[in-house]
Write a structure and sequence with these properties.
Blueprint lengths: L1 H13 L6 H39 L2 H7 L4 H38 L5 H11 L2 H27 L4 H33 L2
Helix pairs in contact: 1-2, 1-4, 2-4, 2-5, 2-6, 2-7, 4-6, 6-7
């Protein structure tokens, strides 16, 4: 939020439109930055942990033992992680939105000398709940993608400890690339069918 406000504010100052810093930052955060940053963080931390845990279970034959005891590994290992990711990523996106906009407010007040009333007035007139909902829609989908890919790579791991590392690395790289691709598609759909 702070870095975005500095960049946008510098450009807007050239045109005498620095009062729009908060609105531009809020729209960018709500629609794109918060869902992507939250997705990247969860993919890098949570997705890697999920993949490492499940792939360790796979190479240690704990998954096979579960199947031998008639316990469905997908229902026991995948579904709870999928539900948790789909529910928690939107909450993290909401935290990103609030903290990013607070940082934008601090920059706007202290560096660009924008009145707080003007800041909020412009923000509320340009950013709608539709923008916030668009970002939250992405976060639900991103959560599902992260959990599904993490579990898929974990369940397909093989080759001992080396296989766990390879599965985790491949999962995180794939998650990041898929998130970027899906973000473009969702954004296109949201804009085209607005």
């Amino acid at each position: 939020g702070a870095a975005g406000s500095l960049q946008v504010g510098t450009v807007f100052t050239l045109f005498g439109a620095q009062s729009l810093v908060g609105a531009a930052n809020a729209k960018a955060l709500a629609r794109e930055l918060s869902p992507l940053m939250a997705g990247f963080l969860i993919a890098g931390r949570g997705g890697a942990a999920m993949t490492a845990e499940i792939s360790t279970m796979k190479v240690n034959e704990q998954i096979d033992a579960m199947e031998a005891m008639a316990v469905d590994p997908v229902g026991y290992l995948v579904v709870p992680r999928l539900i948790a990711a789909v529910l928690m990523l939107p909450l993290l996106v909401a935290i990103f939105n609030v903290s990013g906009q607070f940082a934008s407010l601090v920059i706007a007040l202290n560096i660009f000398d924008i009145d707080s009333g003007t800041f909020f007035d412009k923000m509320l007139s340009i950013v709608s709940w539709h923008d916030v909902w668009a970002g939250l829609q992405k976060s639900f989908i991103f959560g599902a993608i992260i959990a599904a890919l993490a579990c898929r790579f974990g369940l397909n791991a093989s080759g001992g400890a080396k296989g766990v590392g390879q599965a985790t690395t491949n999962a995180v790289v794939t998650m990041l690339l898929v998130l970027l691709s899906v973000d473009f598609v969702i954004t296109y759909i949201q804009i085209a069918y607005k």
